[in-house]
Amino acid sequence: MSSPASPAPPAPRFGVNYTPRTGWFHSWLDLDEDAVGEDLQAIASLGADHVRIFPLWPLLQPNRTLIRPRGLADVRAVVDAAASVGLDVVVDAIQGHLSSFDFIPSWLATWHRRNMFTDPEVVAATAELVRSLAACVADAPNLLGLTLGNEVNQFSASNHPDPDVTSVAEAEAWTRTLLEAARAGAPAGMHTVANYDAAWFMDDHAFTPDQSARLGDATVIHSWIFDGTGQRYGARSYEVAHRAEYYLELARAFSPAPQRPLWLQEVGAPRSLLTEDEVPWFVASTIENSLSCPELWGVTWWCSHDVSRSLADFPPLEHTLGLFDEHGRIKNAGEAFRDAVAAARETAPPASRGRAIEFPVGADALLGRSAAAPGGSVFEAWMDASRAGERPTVRVVREQAEIVAGDTRTGGAAATRVGS
């Protein structure tokens, strides 16, 4: 008697990071629900099934002990508007950092300067905001969950102009505290932390790969080719086409559970490196290659709408990243995304990965992370193996013990050790 077949894995989700067409994220100051509805309807027309939204921290919590009911109500209104057009929602809880601008409340700055990650009163107040925000959307049937901010870990980075100096233990304690607050407010949600790639590639960064891969309900990555990939290898290079796929496999290598979901939560087509003619190729190849990664939960594209050129002081590329322009007209990127999503619905589940590229790391992944960055030995070895058709994965090797978590289904495939 044959054993029952394993259930097919769920199909990956496809979504968009929602940047309001009118007023950008400053639109939270005076929410226009009609404009939001139009934007969300346009996103749904691409075949997307979810959006990620970004209420600004200073508007929700302008004082350490004041969480504005109107601010929470506005978030719920956007969640409900998304439901009306068939979109699920992920709410980012701490903004945080967006498109080169920092959004922190005045009670953390200048004369009131405190460390957001370590000051006990600040952490308690931030946790209360996360809990309150989660509670106000917990019963929404289209809520996917909360994400802790947008690359908030950049505030702790050594290259930040005014860093909140933080240890690895303190970074983990902060993350755990806020995730527990999200769970207290919305027990059923998929709650995650959205660290930018310094956590994976910067040797001295307090937020580590282990934290991203073990805390929360999915491992989140933000993959951008302006991290050195496009500059080093060229816009239409093999490395650019497979950047997100590599990053997903690297993230999977740190997972403590073979079937932990992987979420490509941010990826976009920067015109600082790509021409308009190259954008459709990049969109299609990024999504197609990402679909070859087992445990992919979903892809959420950055972003829905271009930042209006009437707004000042943005890096030029921020005015070009949308799937729609600032007037709501679909761009070639939007058409390519729509077509890639439609094609993905017909794609078979991915096969097991091939040879594992070993990645030696120090205790708590504090040493040698830069070997995995573009130009590093792990990155180069993976790309060489991928170019040769080996569909490689990554295997993390600790100082004292080896953890095999890149792909437990390779059937003992050979591994290649690289790195420092």
From TrEMBL:
Q: Which SUPFAM superfamilies match?
A: (Trans)glycosidases (SSF51445)
* InterPro entries, alphabetized: GH
What domain of life is recorded for the organism? Bacteria
What is the protein name stated in its UniProt record? Endo-1,4-beta-mannosidase
